[in-house]
Design brief:
CATH topology: hpI Integrase, Chain A
Distance between the termini: 18 Å
Number of domains: 1
Helix content: 55-70%
Radius of gyration: 17 Å
Strand content: under 5%
Largest sheet: 2 strands, antiparallel
CATH class: Mainly Alpha
Number of helices: 11
CATH superfamily: Intergrase catalytic core
Structural class: mainly alpha
Shape: globular
CATH architecture: Orthogonal Bundle
């Protein structure tokens, strides 16, 4: 990795920053009179708690998530079927988003573009632009914020919760479908931090 790449690579959020973002988005939806933020709340929740790619989350329909304790997804990139347990926090986020969106048909896309009446998902391009605006609005510090931020946050959280163990990296490499744990290390920012520390320690 070149030194210049350290500034352009998307990095995971600190878990405290992720929780702050989710709290602020929830408040905006429930109390702040900004119901449209349910889409970002839902996207961030499913991507981070489920460790899914953005493209797979955007393809979800309400029928896939409402009232479910398990989410079954066929990944677009790999064709593999993943079964993901939905924790109680994520179930609450889904329920709130559904309450606000109030879709007439559960076959509509859960994270849809505003002008499609649920018939088209948000585009990745729009979501990436909106995400940067959201991070500024809610004062969330992120390096090169993108839709990858949340999946990487999931990976870093799993690694830290499992005592930064090699076993955690092996599990994550399977979840992310990486060919080696070296790739997983880079994906969740461990290599970047190690290189940065080398420069800082000189």
């Amino acid at each position: 990795m070149r030194r210049t790449d350290l500034k352009t690579e998307t990095a995971p959020l600190k878990w405290s920053d992720f929780e702050s973002l989710m709290g602020q988005l929830t408040y905006a939806v429930q109390v702040g009179g900004e119901p449209a933020y349910y889409r970002m709340l839902l996207f961030a929740g499913i991507t981070t708690y489920g460790g899914l790619r953005a493209s797979d989350v955007l393809n979800l329909r309400w029928a896939d998530v409402i009232g479910k304790t398990t989410l079954v997804v066929r990944e677009k990139k790999t064709g593999k079927v993943r079964e993901i347990a939905l924790n109680t926090k994520l179930q609450g986020i889904i329920a709130l988003a559904h309450q606000v969106a109030a879709p007439a048909d559960l076959q509509l896309y859960a994270i849809s573009s505003r002008d499609s009446a649920g018939k088209k998902p948000l585009s990745l391009q729009y979501l990436n632009r909106w995400l940067k605006e959201v991070f500024v609005r809610f004062n969330i510090k992120a390096q090169n914020a993108s839709t990858h931020t949340f999946r990487k946050t999931f990976g870093r959280r799993v690694f830290e919760m499992n005592n930064q163990s090699e076993e955690a990296l092996i599990t994550l490499s399977h979840i992310f479908n990486h060919s080696s744990i070296s790739i997983t290390r880079g994906y969740i920012g461990l290599k970047r931090e190690r290189i940065t520390n080398i420069y800082m320690d000189l």
